[in-house]
C-alpha cells in the first residue's frame, strides 16, 4: 500500500498503529473494565465500517508483523479479511493487486515453525478471501506463485493447503454477506480451476506423505511431524472439495486413490475416512455419464470394503487385538459404508460379486459387539428394508430413504429390488433378529449375571454421546424387527418364539425372577412388533398359502398356550404376562378360536391379585389396572373375534361386582373394552351395550339428594372432599362418560364441518338419548369446582383444599419443559381420608374429563344444542371466568369451546355462541393485553396462575408464567382460526389466486347481515359485543412476539380482509384498511413473525389491491412509512398493474415494505438469514416493546376509535 516519506506522516501513522493495537489489546483483555472494552470495540467497529480504508489497511499490515503479540496479529488478520469482504470496492484495481501481493508475501513470512497454527490459518484465509473477491483472473496470476511457494518446504506447503481449504468456504458454509448469485459465480470459477487445484493437492499429498515416512525412517522426528502436518492440512483441503467437486474430476486427479491408500496409514486414516464419508453421500452429477459415476462409485465401494473386510476379520477372530483407536476408525468407515448404501447402492446393484459381499459386511457391522458400529449400520438396514419392501405405487421416500436401488423405470427398479432381496436370505434375517433381541436391553437395567451371559456385547448406556435417547434407538430397532418380520414371517415367528421360550424357562428356574424383569419386558416389545408385522392388513396373512398359515398358527398357538399355562401371581410378573397377551391381539383376529382362552386367562390373573383398597402405590393395584386395560387393547386388535365372548365377559363382570371383587375404575376399563367390541357389531348392539353399562350410573347420577348435598355450594364440595368413597365414585362416573362418548361417537375423520350449518346433519349417535341426564349434574359439578377459585370463596377454604388447588409437580415440570416425575396415571379408589394430593388429582381429573365430556357431547348435535339449557352451560363455564387461571382458561377453550364452535348448528348460533363467547372474549382480551404488556415492558408476565405455583426459583417461575401466557394466547388464536375455517365460512370468496388490480364489482357487494348467514366470521363481526374484544386482540397480537400465535390468527385476519372486500360495512373497511394494515406491517418488524411473513405480506397485498380504490387509508399507511417517497409508491402501483400474478404482486409488496422501512422489517430480513451460522445475536426481551415503526400517526376513526 502507499507509504509517505514525511516525518509527520510517519509519526501520525505510528500513532494510529499504536491506537489500534491498544484498542485490540483492551477489547481482548477481560481484566479491562466493561466501559473500556466497550469503548475499544466501538473504536474498532468505527474503523472497520467508516475509517479510511487505505490508512486502516496499512495499519493492519503493520500489526500482523512478528513484533506484535499473537492476539493483536490474529485480530488484525481478521480485520483485514473484513476489509476484503465488505470494503473491497473502495480500492482501485492497482491497490487490489498490491493488497494481494502483500498478503502472499505475508504467507511466505509466516511460514515459520515457531508461528502459531491460528495465525497461519487466518493468513491463508485472508489470501483465499482475496481470491474469492477478485475471481479467476487473479487466481491465474497467483497460482504459479502458490505452486512455487508450496515446493519450498513442508510449512509453505501447509500454508498453501490451508489457503486451498479456505477457498471454497462460501460454497460449503452459507455466509450472509454472500448473495446467491455471487455464490454461484464462485462455484463456477472454482469448478473451472479444479484442473489446477486437484492435481496440486494430490501432488502435495503424495510428496509429503512419502517425505514423512522417509524422515521418520531416518529418525528425523521434528521434520517428519512438519510433513505430517502438511498431509493433514492437505486432507482438510481435499475434504473441502469432496462435497461438491465432480466425482470424475476427483478420480482423474488421483485423489480418490490417494485417500484410499491413506486409509491404511494410522496417522491419517481418520482424515481420509472423512473424505470418503463426504463422497459416499454424493448424488449423481447431471453433467457426467451414469457409467462414469458408477465406475467411480464401484471403486469407492471396493476401497472401503477392503478396509472393512480387514477390520471385520480381525475383530471377529481376535477381538483383543483391536484397540479403541481402530474401533473409532471402523465407526467412521461404517458411516461411509452406510452413506454409500443409502445413496449409491444402485452403482453395484447389478454386480453379483460386489453386492452380496457388501451386504455381508454391513451385517457384520450390525452384529459387531461395539455399540457405536452397530448403531451406524442400523440406519442402513432400516433404509434398505424400508425401500425394498415398499409398494411400487406408494414409494415416496426422499433420496436418502429410497436410493437403495432405483432404476430408469419402475420395472427395472422392481427387478433390482428382487435381486437385492434375494441376497438378504434366511441366514441374514436370523442373524439380524439374534442381534436385535439382546440389544433392546440397557446395561444398567439388568442383573450382573445377565450381563455376563451376553458376553462382550456392549449394550446401550446413557453415557454414549451423539446417539440420542434409548427410547429413540429402541424404536428404530423395533421398526427393523417389524420390517424383517413382514419379509420373512416364518423365521421371525420362530426366532421370537424360541427366544421367549428360553427366557421363560430360565425364569421358572430362577429363585428371584422379579429381579430381572427387563429381559422379559424387552422381548414383549419384540413379540408385539413381530405379531403386528405378520398379521398387518397390508401383509394380509389370509392370502398366504395354507402351509405358511398353518406354520404361523402352530408357532403362535404354542406360544400363546405357554403364556396361558403360566401360574404367575406376583404383581410385577402378572403385568409382564398381561402385556404378552396384549401382543397376541392381532393373532386372535385371524385365529379367533384362541380368543376365549385369552379372555379367561385375563380374568384369572385379575382375580389372583389381591383387592387392595387402602394404598395408593400398591403394585397389585397397578397390576389389576393393567389387566383391565388389556381387555381394551385386545378388543381393538382382535376385532370381531371377541364378539362371541361378550355375554361371558358381561356375566363375569356382574358376578365380580356382586361379590365386591371389581372396583369401579376397573369396571370402567372393562366397560370401555365392551364398547369397542360393540362398535364392530353395529349401532343396535352399541345402543344395547350402552344402556346396560350406563343404567347403573343413571340411577345414582340423577338422584337429587347427592346433588343438593355436594353441588349446591362450595361448602358441599368441601364436604365431598372429606368423603373419599363418594368423591372417587363421582370421578369414575365422569371418566366413564368420557370413555363412552369417545368410543361411541362419530369418528373425527367423518365429521363434516360444512354440514354443521343444518340442525339435522349430525349422524345418529348411540349416546344421544343419554346426553341430557348425564350433563345437567355435570354442569353443576363444574360450576362448583370453578367457584373454588373465586376470591371470596377461596379465602374461606380449608388449608388442605387451598393447597390442592395449586399446580401439581407434573404440571410444573411440563411448563418448564423438564422430564415429568413418574406418577401413577390412575388415581386410587381411596377409601380412607383423602390427602391433599388426592384432592388435587380429583379436581384436575374432574376438570379434564368434565371438559372433554362437554366437548365430545357437542359433536352429537341436536341432543346437545336443543335439549340443554344454554343458560346452565354458560353459568357453569363462564360464571367465574374472571377468577380462572390461564391454564384452566386454555382448557375451556381447547376442550369445550372449539368443539362447540365447530358443531353449533347455524340456527343455534345466535343463542349459543353469543352467550358463551362474549364473556370469554371480553375477559381473555383484557387479561392477555395486561400480561403481554407486563412481559414486554418488565420482562415478566403477570398471570393469575402464579398463586397456584407451589415453589421454584424466580427464573423458573418466570418461565412458567411466560409459558402459560403463550399457551393461552395460542389457544385463543386457534379458536379464531377455527371460526375462520372455510367450512364455516362458505360465503367468503378467496382472493389468493386473483391478482387483477381492479375495483371490486360494487354490484356484488353485500351487507354484513347477509354474509353473516353463511360466514361465522361475518356472524361474529355483526355482533358488536363479540367483535370489539377480538378486533382489539387482532391488532395487539402482532406486537406480542409470538410467531405461532400470529400463524394461528392470520386466517381470521385474512377472512376479515375478504369480508371487507365483499361487504359495504364502512367500519369494517376502515378497520381493515387502516388499523389492521398498520398492525400487520408492525408485526413484520418482529423477527418472531418470520415464519408467517409470507402470509402477512399476502394480507398486505390483498388490503392494498382491493381496498386502495375504496378507501384512502392503504395509501396513507404506506405513505407514512419513514423511507418511502411519492415516486416509490407510484412505481409500486404501476408494477402491480403490470402483473396479474399474486405471487409477483406479493414480491412487489415485500420489496416496497423493505424499502419504505429502511430494511427494518426483521421478519422479512430474517428470511435471508435461513441456514446462516454467523453473526448470531440475542437482544433483551424488554426491547420488544420499543416503538418499531411510526406508521399510526393521526386520529383514528371507525371501529378503531371505539377500541
Automatic annotation (TrEMBL):
<dbReference type="InterPro" id="IPR011989">
    <property type="entry name" value="ARM-like"/>
</dbReference>
<dbReference type="GO" id="GO:0006611">
    <property type="term" value="P:protein export from nucleus"/>
</dbReference>
<dbReference type="GO" id="GO:0005049">
    <property type="term" value="F:nuclear export signal receptor activity"/>
</dbReference>
<dbReference type="GO" id="GO:0005737">
    <property type="term" value="C:cytoplasm"/>
</dbReference>
<dbReference type="InterPro" id="IPR016024">
    <property type="entry name" value="ARM-type_fold"/>
</dbReference>
<dbReference type="Pfam" id="PF08389">
    <property type="entry name" value="Xpo1"/>
</dbReference>
<dbReference type="GO" id="GO:0042565">
    <property type="term" value="C:RNA nuclear export complex"/>
</dbReference>
<dbReference type="GO" id="GO:0006405">
    <property type="term" value="P:RNA export from nucleus"/>
</dbReference>
<dbReference type="InterPro" id="IPR045065">
    <property type="entry name" value="XPO1/5"/>
</dbReference>
<protein>
    <submittedName>
        <fullName>Protein HASTY 1</fullName>
    </submittedName>
</protein>
<dbReference type="GO" id="GO:0003723">
    <property type="term" value="F:RNA binding"/>
</dbReference>
<feature type="domain" description="Exportin-1/Importin-beta-like">
    <location>
        <begin position="117"/>
        <end position="275"/>
    </location>
</feature>
<dbReference type="InterPro" id="IPR045478">
    <property type="entry name" value="Exportin-5_C"/>
</dbReference>
<dbReference type="InterPro" id="IPR013598">
    <property type="entry name" value="Exportin-1/Importin-b-like"/>
</dbReference>
<dbReference type="GO" id="GO:0005634">
    <property type="term" value="C:nucleus"/>
</dbReference>
<feature type="domain" description="Exportin-5 C-terminal">
    <location>
        <begin position="324"/>
        <end position="1168"/>
    </location>
</feature>
<dbReference type="Pfam" id="PF19273">
    <property type="entry name" value="Exportin-5"/>
</dbReference>
Amino acid at each position: 500500500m502507499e507509504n509517505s516519506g514525511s516525518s509527520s506522516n510517519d509519526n501520525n501513522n505510528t500513532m494510529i498503529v499504536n491506537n489500534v493495537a491498544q484498542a485490540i489489546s483492551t477489547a481482548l483483555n477481560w481484566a479491562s473494565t466493561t466501559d473500556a472494552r466497550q469503548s475499544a470495540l466501538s473504536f474498532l467497529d468505527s474503523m472497520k465500517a467508516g475509517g479510511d480504508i487505505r490508512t486502516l489497511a496499512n495499519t493492519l499490515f503493520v500489526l500482523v508483523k512478528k513484533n506484535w503479540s499473537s492476539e493483536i496479529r490474529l485480530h488484525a488478520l481478521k480485520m483485514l479479511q473484513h476489509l476484503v469482504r465488505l470494503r473491497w470496492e473502495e480500492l482501485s484495481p492497482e491497490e487490489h493487486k498490491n493488497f494481494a501481493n502483500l498478503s502472499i508475501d505475508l504467507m511466505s513470512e509466516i511460514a515459520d515453525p515457531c508461528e502459531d497454527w491460528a495465525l497461519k490459518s487466518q493468513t491463508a484465509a485472508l489470501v483465499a478471501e482475496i481470491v474469492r473477491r477478485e475471481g479467476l483472473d487473479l487466481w491465474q496470476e497467483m497460482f504459479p506463485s502458490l505452486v512455487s511457494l508450496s515446493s519450498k518446504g513442508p510449512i509453505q506447503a501447509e500454508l498453501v493447503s490451508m489457503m486451498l481449504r479456505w477457498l471454497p468456504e462460501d460454497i460449503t458454509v452459507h455466509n450472509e454477506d454472500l448473495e446467491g448469485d455471487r455464490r454461484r459465480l464462485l462455484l463456477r470459477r472454482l469448478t473451472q480451476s479444479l484442473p489446477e487445484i486437484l492435481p496440486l493437492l494430490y501432488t502435495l499429498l503424495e510428496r509429503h506423505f512419502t517425505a514423512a515416512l522417509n524422515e521418520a525412517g531416518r529418525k528425523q522426528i521434528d521434520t517428519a511431524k512438519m510433513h505430517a502436518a502438511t498431509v493433514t492440512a492437505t486432507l482438510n483441503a481435499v475434504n473441502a472439495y469432496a462435497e461438491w467437486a465432480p466425482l470424475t474430476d476427483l478420480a482423474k486427479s488421483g485423489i480418490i486413490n490417494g485417500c484410499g491408500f491413506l486409509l491404511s496409514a494410522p496417522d491419517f486414516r481418520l482424515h481420509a475416512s472423512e473424505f470418503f464419508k463426504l463422497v459416499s453421500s454424493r448424488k449423481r452429477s447431471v453433467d457426467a455419464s451414469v457409467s462414469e459415476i458408477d465406475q467411480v462409485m464401484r471403486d469407492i465401494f471396493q476401497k472401503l470394503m477392503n478396509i472393512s473386510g480387514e477390520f471385520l476379520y480381525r475383530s471377529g477372530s481376535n477381538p483383543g487385538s483391536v484397540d479403541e483407536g481402530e474401533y473409532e476408525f471402523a465407526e467412521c468407515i461404517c458411516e461411509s459404508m452406510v452413506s454409500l448404501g443409502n445413496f449409491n447402492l444402485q452403482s453395484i446393484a447389478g454386480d453379483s460379486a460386489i453386492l452380496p459381499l457388501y451386504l455381508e459386511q454391513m451385517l457384520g457391522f450390525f452384529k459387531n459387539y461395539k455399540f457405536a458400529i452397530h448403531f451406524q449400520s442400523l440406519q442402513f438396514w432400516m433404509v434398505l428394508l424400508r425401500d425394498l419392501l415398499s409398494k411400487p405405487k406408494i414409494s415416496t421416500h426422499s433420496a436418502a430413504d429410497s436410493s437403495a436401488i432405483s432404476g430408469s423405470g419402475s420395472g427395472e427398479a422392481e427387478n433390482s429390488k428382487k435381486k437385492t432381496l434375494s441376497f438378504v436370505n434366511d441366514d441374514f434375517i436370523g442373524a439380524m433378529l439374534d442381534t436385535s433381541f439382546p440389544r433392546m436391553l440397557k446395561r444398567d437395567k439388568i442383573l450382573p449375571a445377565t450381563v455376563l451371559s451376553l458376553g462382550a456385547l456392549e449394550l446401550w448406556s446413557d453415557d454414549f454421546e451423539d446417539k440420542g435417547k434409548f427410547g429413540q434407538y429402541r424404536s428404530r430397532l423395533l421398526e427393523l424387527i417389524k420390517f424383517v418380520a413382514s419379509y420373512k414371517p416364518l423365521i421371525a415367528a420362530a426366532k421370537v418364539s424360541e427366544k421367549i421360550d428360553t427366557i421363560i424357562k430360565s425364569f421358572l428356574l430362577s429363585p428371584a425372577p422379579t429381579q430381572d424383569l427387563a429381559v422379559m419386558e424387552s422381548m414383549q416389545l419384540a413379540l408385539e412388533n413381530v405379531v403386528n408385522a405378520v398379521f398387518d392388513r397390508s401383509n394380509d396373512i389370509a392370502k398366504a398359502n395354507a402351509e405358511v398359515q398353518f406354520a404361523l398358527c402352530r408357532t403362535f398357538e404354542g406360544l400363546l398356550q405357554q403364556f396361558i399355562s403360566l401360574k404367575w401371581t406376583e404383581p410385577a410378573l402378572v403385568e409382564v404376562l398381561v402385556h404378552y397377551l396384549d401382543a397376541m391381539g392381532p393373532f386372535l383376529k385371524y385365529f379367533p378360536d384362541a380368543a376365549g382362552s385369552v379372555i379367561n386367562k385375563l380374568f384369572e390373573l385379575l382375580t389372583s391379585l389381591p383387592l387392595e383398597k387402602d394404598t395408593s402405590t400398591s403394585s397389585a393395584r397397578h397390576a389389576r389396572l393393567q389387566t383391565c386395560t388389556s381387555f381394551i387393547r385386545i378388543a381393538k386388535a382382535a376385532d370381531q373375534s371377541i364378539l362371541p365372548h361378550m355375554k361371558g365377559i358381561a356375566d363375569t363382570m356382574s358376578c365380580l361386582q356382586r361379590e365386591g371383587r371389581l372396583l369401579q375404575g376397573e369396571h370402567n376399563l372393562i366397560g370401555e373394552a365392551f364398547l369397542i367390541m360393540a362398535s364392530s357389531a353395529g349401532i343396535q348392539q352399541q345402543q344395547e351395550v350402552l344402556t346396560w353399562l350406563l343404567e347403573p350410573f343413571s340411577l345414582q347420577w340423577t338422584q337429587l339428594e347427592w346433588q343438593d348435598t355436594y353441588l349446591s355450594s362450595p361448602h358441599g364440595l368441601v364436604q365431598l372432599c372429606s368423603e373419599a368413597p363418594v368423591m372417587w365414585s363421582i370421578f369414575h362416573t365422569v371418566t366413564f362418560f368420557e370413555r363412552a362418548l369417545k368410543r361411541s361417537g362419530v369418528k373425527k375423520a367423518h365429521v363434516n364441518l360444512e354440514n354443521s350449518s343444518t340442525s339435522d346433519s349430525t349422524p345418529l349417535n348411540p349416546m344421544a338419548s343419554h346426553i341430557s341426564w348425564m350433563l345437567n349434574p355435570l354442569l353443576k359439578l363444574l360450576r362448583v369446582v370453578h367457584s373454588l377459585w373465586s376470591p371470596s370463596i377461596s379465602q374461606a377454604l380449608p388449608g388442605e383444599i387451598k393447597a390442592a388447588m395449586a399446580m401439581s409437580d407434573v404440571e410444573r415440570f411440563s411448563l418448564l419443559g423438564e422430564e415429568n416425575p413418574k406418577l401413577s396415571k390412575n388415581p386410587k379408589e381411596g377409601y380412607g381420608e383423602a390427602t391433599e394430593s388426592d384432592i388435587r388429582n380429583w379436581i384436575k381429573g374432574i376438570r379434564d374429563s368434565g371438559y372433554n365430556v362437554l366437548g365430545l357431547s357437542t359433536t352429537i348435535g341436536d341432543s346437545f344444542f336443543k335439549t340443554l339449557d344454554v343458560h346452565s352451560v354458560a353459568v357453569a363455564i363462564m360464571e367465574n371466568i374472571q377468577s380462572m387461571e390461564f391454564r384452566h382458561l386454555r382448557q375451556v377453550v381447547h376442550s369445550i369451546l372449539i368443539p362447540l364452535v365447530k358443531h353449533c348448528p347455524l340456527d343455534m348460533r345466535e343463542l349459543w355462541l353469543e352467550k358463551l363467547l362474549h364473556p370469554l372474549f371480553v375477559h381473555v382480551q383484557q387479561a392477555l393485553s395486561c400480561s403481554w404488556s407486563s412481559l414486554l415492558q418488565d420482562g415478566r408476565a403477570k398471570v393469575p396462575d402464579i398463586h397456584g405455583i407451589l415453589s421454584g426459583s424466580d427464573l423458573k417461575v418466570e418461565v412458567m408464567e411466560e409459558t402459560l401466557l403463550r399457551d393461552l394466547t395460542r389457544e385463543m388464536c386457534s379458536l379464531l382460526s377455527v371460526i375462520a375455517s372455510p367450512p364455516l365460512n362458505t360465503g367468503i370468496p378467496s382472493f389468493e389466486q386473483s391478482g387483477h388490480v381492479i375495483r371490486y364489482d360494487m354490484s356484488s357487494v353485500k351487507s354484513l347481515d347477509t354474509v353473516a348467514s353463511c360466514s361465522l366470521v361475518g356472524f361474529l363481526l355483526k355482533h358488536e359485543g363479540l367483535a370489539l374484544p377480538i378486533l382489539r386482540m387482532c391488532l395487539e397480537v402482532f406486537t406480542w412476539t409470538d410467531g405461532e400465535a400470529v400463524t394461528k390468527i392470520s386466517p381470521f385476519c385474512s377472512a376479515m380482509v375478504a369480508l371487507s372486500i365483499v361487504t359495504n360495512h364502512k367500519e369494517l373497511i376502515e378497520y381493515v384498511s387502516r388499523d389492521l394494515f398498520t398492525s400487520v406491517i408492525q408485526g413484520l418488524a418482529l423477527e418472531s413473525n418470520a415464519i408467517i411473513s409470507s402470509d402477512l405480506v399476502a394480507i398486505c397485498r390483498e388490503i392494498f389491491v382491493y381496498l386502495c380504490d375504496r378507501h384512502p387509508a392503504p395509501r396513507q399507511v404506506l405513505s407514512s412509512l419513514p423511507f418511502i417517497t411519492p415516486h416509490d409508491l407510484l412505481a409500486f402501483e404501476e408494477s402491480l398493474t403490470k402483473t396479474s400474478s399474486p405471487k409477483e404482486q406479493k414480491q412487489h409488496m415485500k420489496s416496497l415494505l423493505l424499502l419504505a422501512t429502511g430494511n427494518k422489517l426483521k421478519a422479512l430480513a430474517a428470511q435471508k438469514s435461513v441456514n446462516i451460522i454467523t453473526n448470531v445475536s440475542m437482544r433483551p426481551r424488554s426491547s420488544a416493546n420499543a416503538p418499531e415503526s411510526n406508521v399510526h400517526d393521526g386520529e383514528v376513526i371507525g371501529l378503531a376509535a371505539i377500541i
